[in-house]
Amino acid sequence: MVSARAQILGRARRALSDVPKTDPAVDVPIDRPQPRRDLSGEQLVDLFAEQVADYRAVVEKVPEPEVAGAIAGALGGAAGTGLARILVPPGFPAEYVPDGVEIVADGPDVPVGVLDHCDGVLTTATIGIAETGTIVLDHGPGQGRRAATLVPDLHVCVIHAGQVVAGLPEAVSALDPRRPQTWISGPSATSDIELDRVEGVHGPRTLHVVIVTAGG
């Protein structure tokens, strides 16, 4: 009696019978774009901002004294309405929180129902990856728990220019593998079989990234 595994492998062998065999010890050349390792710090930040914006996220580069103003603009400009109820995780810099908003202090005991009634969430980040426009959170101080960055409809993320690295190897080597991580590449989005893009299905509908530069 032939097992199902043997039948599947037999079909695979027959389907590949006319494919030229290669020596598994010989590397097959793959044309991959070369990573950008020759960029200066400012160029890395510019590339990161360009890649983040390519995901339909909003990106701003501002000096430190203007961070609170940029966040206020992000909160007031989303969907053309002023947002007032904002989730703030422990450790988020108090000087970055703009005036005139209702602060909901997050914590492990805050139920998801409360998160759902927040208009947005403010977080910091651990690393930004220039080549992919990816933001990595390890949920340390200022970054909140994972639910906090998934439930509210708006995520305003503050990242310093010095936290931007060139590519994945640099990011992985800098991250602590023992910590939980959330990798964010643009706002939450998905597409159905007809490729109609829908945002906010399994995370924030809007991602607003504030890059803190050295100027100012």
Automatic annotation (TrEMBL):
Domain LUD stretches: 117-212
Gene3D superfamilies given in the database record: NagB/RpiA/CoA transferase-like
SUPFAM superfamilies attached to this UniProt entry: NagB/RpiA/CoA transferase-like
Pfam families to which the protein is assigned, alphabetical: LUD_dom
Signal sequence region: none
InterPro entries xrefs: FTHF_cligase-like_sf, LUD_dom, NagB/RpiA_transferase-like
Protein name: LUD domain-containing protein
Organism expressing this protein natively: Amycolatopsis ultiminotia
